[in-house]
Structure formats: C-alpha cells, structure tokens
Write a sequence for this structure.
C-alpha cells in the first residue's frame, strides 16, 4: 500500500499526445502506464466538472515500471516509445481496452558492445515520406518506414543521449546530452550543420551543464535550450538572434508555433513569448519541472502541460490554466 501511495505521489508524466479526432488526451508516465482523458467532455461541461471527470477514462500498462518516454499520434495508431522498442496500438484499443494487444513493434538496434537497451526519448513523423524518426539513448537518431517498419537510415553525430527532435520541411534538428544541436537533411545521413550553444557566452550556464532538452526549427529559425539558456538562432548565419529572459533551471520544452515561442522546463511557470523575447504570458504549473506540452486548435483550442507531478494542467486558450486533470 505504501509503495502504491509513493507511486501516486511521485509519478511523472514524460509524454502526451491527442487522438486524431482531438477529443481525447493520452499521457504516458514513468511506471509504464498509458492514461486516456476525455477532453471534449470536460471542455463542454464548463463549471460542472466533478473530481471523477478529471480522472482518466481508461488506463493500461505497457510494461510494469518501464517509462513511457515518447508518444506520437497517427491516423490509425498510438505509437509509444519506451526502452529499446517502439510499440503501436489501435485507437479503439487505446480508448477502451484495459489490456490492449500491440498491433506492431520495432526493436531499436542494439550496439554489439552494449547489453543495455536504449531509451526512445522522442518521436517525430515525416508525413510526406511516411517516415518515423526516433531519438535514442544510444546517441543515434533512427528513421523507419512506417509501412514496412524497416530501418531506412541511422543519423550518427551525437556523442551522448539524444533527448529531443523536431521536423520541418525536409529538415530534422536534434539535441543531446553532449550539448550538440545538429541539423540534418532527411535525404542524407550526414549532418548539414551543427552548433554547440554551451560555447557561446550569451547562453552558457556552466552550473546547469551543456545538455540540450528542447529544439525547434522552421525555414528561417532554430530554437534550442537546455542547460544553456533558451535562444533563437538565424539559420543562414547561425548567429544568436534572441536570448529569452526567462527564469528557469533547464529547458525541456521548446517550440515555435505560428509567431510565438512556447517554453517550459525546471520552473513553476510555462512561457509563451514573441520571437524578439517579449513575454506574452506566464502560466503557473503544477509540476516543478515541465517535461511535455502539447496543443491543438481543432476541434477546440487547448494546451496541456505536464511533468514531475500526477497533475496535468489544461489551458483552453493558451493564456491561463482553467482545468486540472489527475492520474489518480
């Protein structure tokens, strides 16, 4: 009983995604559990929400005490990144089954000299070429054909764990424990460019380390942060354009969305900012450290923030928290 109470109190959410319809939120925790919340019902209920409404409508365990590092939503499947493998489940099973069967899986290649299975830390999808990219704890980024589940190529360049990925217009950017931010072309296994933010005086924070925890990319800009301060880089010149003036002890979430920046990490605030560094809003968070934030505009606008807590903060307008979900 004590152990169960400890799990409830100390649980951490590492990953989130929405169902394709946008009506449900799916979260993964450090104990191998997937929890499904009926978001649309909560949004439409307004002020009549009960404690039971804030709990998951379905929960199932992938593997006992194996953390769910990453989640990805496709039209047909929930794709789950754990330790050493990627698993897929049909949406019907995810929403309704307490013991869903796995539709297919991909084993991450194991280095010959290593007996440890690498964590699958981040997943992104290239819709156009139907490729799944996985950032892994063996220092590599793997791409797999989503139909055949065969490995297409391995992106080698990091010297330590790869924590985060982002994809945009045939470009992939990865960030790792080694402090490297690497830009890749999806057609080539060799890096297009790389930077080491910890070597720049404007952003280095020696007391927090070199690691990169969040990255974003578009046609003109590169966003990255971790131990080094969150910063925006001009892609052509690879010079720092903006250093964001936020109070954090490490960045784990960094995203460019339309003309705004979303950011969170080891801080009790989640930030929305302009590209020039102006803070638009500061959202108080339940977790001390934010590890994951997901948002959508349709069928209703919502931002969900989670991390080192069994609580998930929901902001239906991206500006302030108006709902809290709970794993227990």
């Amino acid at each position: 009983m004590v152990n169960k109470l400890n799990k409830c109190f100390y649980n951490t959410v590492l990953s989130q995604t929405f169902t394709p319809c946008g009506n449900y939120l799916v979260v993964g925790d450090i104990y191998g559990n997937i929890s499904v919340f009926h978001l649309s019902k909560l949004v439409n209920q307004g002020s009549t929400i009960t404690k039971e409404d804030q709990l998951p409508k379905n929960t199932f365990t992938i593997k006992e005490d194996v953390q769910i590092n990453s989640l990805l939503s496709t039209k047909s499947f929930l794709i789950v990144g754990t330790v050493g493998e990627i698993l897929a489940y049909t949406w019907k099973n995810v929403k309704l089954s307490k013991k869903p069967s796995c539709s297919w899986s991909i084993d991450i290649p194991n280095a010959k000299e290593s007996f440890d299975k690498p964590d699958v830390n981040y997943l992104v999808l290239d819709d156009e070429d139907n490729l799944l990219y996985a950032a892994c704890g063996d220092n590599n980024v793997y791409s797999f054909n989503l139909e055949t589940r065969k490995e297409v190529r391995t992106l080698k360049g990091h010297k330590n764990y790869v924590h985060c990925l982002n994809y945009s217009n045939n470009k992939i950017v990865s960030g790792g424990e080694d402090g490297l931010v690497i830009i890749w072309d999806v057609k080539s296994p060799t890096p297009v460019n790389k930077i080491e933010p910890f070597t720049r005086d404007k952003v280095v924070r020696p007391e927090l380390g070199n690691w990169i925890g969040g990255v974003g990319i578009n046609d003109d800009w590169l966003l990255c942060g971790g131990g080094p301060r969150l910063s925006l880089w001009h892609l052509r010149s690879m010079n720092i354009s903006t250093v964001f003036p936020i109070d954090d002890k490490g960045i784990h979430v960094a995203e460019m969305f339309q003309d705004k920046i979303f950011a969170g990490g080891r801080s009790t605030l989640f930030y929305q900012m302009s590209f020039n560094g102006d803070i638009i809003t500061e959202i108080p968070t339940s977790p001390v450290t934010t590890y994951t934030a997901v948002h959508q505009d349709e069928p209703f606008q919502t931002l969900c923030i989670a991390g080192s807590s069994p609580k998930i903060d929901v902001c239906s307008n991206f500006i302030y928290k108006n709902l809290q979900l709970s794993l227990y």
Q: What stands out?
A: The mean pLDDT is 94. The chain is about 5% helix and 50% strand. The helical segments are 2-10, 39-45, 91-96. The longest strand covers residues 120-126.
